[in-house]
Amino acid sequence: MSLGIDFGTTRTVVALGIDGRYVLAHFDVDGEYHDFVPSMVALHDGERHYGWDAAHLLRSGQAQAALRSIKRLLADTPPDAHLEELGGVCVLDLLAEFLAALRAALATSNLAEHLDFDQPLCATVALPANSTTQQRYTTLEAFRRAGFCVELVLNEPTAAAIEFAHQDRSTLSPRSPKRYMVVYDLGGGTFDTSAISLQGQRFELLDSEGIARLGGDDFDEVIYDGCLEATERSPQSISALLRERLLELCRDAKEALRPQSKKLLIDLGEVIDGAEPVGLDVKELFERCQPLMDRTLALIDRLFDGLIRFGIDPESVRELGGLYLVGGGVSFPIVSRTLRERYGRKLKLAPQPHASTAVGLAIAGDPAAGVHVREAVTRHFGVWREVEGGAQKRFDPIFSKGDRSGEDGVLEVKRAYRAVHNLGHLRFLECSDLDPDGQPQGDLMPWGALLFPYARELQGADGLDAVEVVPLSGAAPEIEERYRYHRDGRVSVEVRDLGTGFVVERWVGSF
Prior knowledge:
Actin, Chain A, domain 4, six-stranded mixed β-sheet, Substrate Binding Domain Of DNAk, Chain A, domain 1, alpha+beta, 511 residues, Nucleotidyltransferase, domain 5, 10 helices
């Protein structure tokens, strides 16, 4: 049996199938049971602590440094970057340490008797649909280092769709006219919206849109800014550690807010000696948050508009299984209020928004459930090519957003050409969109160059980065590039000299 692990920006939730039920892991924290672990790290006496230990150190003021949402590091920090404020640990090792701490916490949870800790724990994990190849590579490598065996990887909205269909069986009835559903997934740090087809126990990702840095943390920032304004404090007067403590306080206040609340109360005295409580007007707060909501609405509209190419009428209520709200961020009242004003009865709120993805992952990893998933490419991936004799560079899209893999979950693309220089610098790039001319735009993520020696005397040599690129003399070697988009969303590249058989193989994101 495979654990369903939703490694979230602010909370990590674990579920397991037991006798046909899908049970959440519960953790004993000073006599109180919680169904999540905070995705957090804190430094104390030179040692890093994770999860609930980190939360206690941060709240009690004992932490020397802290980071509340460690998953956000994946969005904009290289895996080998070192975090000096947290003891100089690199990002990849930090993530692996957190997941190892999660594994240790599971040994004292309610799921412990069903797990064999002498072996790597089998897991089905999820990633944001909009995550880059490097994010996927780094996350899976961290799980491996922490003692997990990842058997299946899904996009987070797909896992939520599986959970929805499991608890609403009528949606999958052969007589049901429902053809698809749309998932609105607002977590702590990322936003994804995806359309997923519903055909029995087969779930196929049709299309997706996302924002890499938009989630509940951003609402916390709005509340934090309001507190500073209300108390006439400048951001420069707040230390990095105090800022983390205040943001945690703002998150607690946000999660305690009710739809009928008129004021949001933040007791700053909990972290600042002598500070008075601050009361923020909820109506004004929602107005400040509205631009964030508008960004998500624009992507939902774009998603619905694109469904026509799949033969789906986005105006047909009969075909839509629902707009399903998942993720911890959807509990903030402005989210459901804004969406209900636009989509009305189409809206469906998950029974446990923060746990929906983990439960869906556990179902997908349960052989008895008989779930079949077919994902799609969620970002454009390609390589820069020289054209017009090297005078211009042109983006060659290898995998396009929306491309579908075969039944084995692998999509393969080949390129063949004759080299004209002694050394190839293959510069890869991912992006969220292409302009009308096929050039990258939107959210861009460039990767380092993969060096391939076309000149045979360079093949197998070291120090290629110091070699000057010059035109080849003599016969031009025939080169083949082979790209594979794997079931877990990672991309591998293989470059081969067909004459000599010399080959270089890499995972994109590992160089």
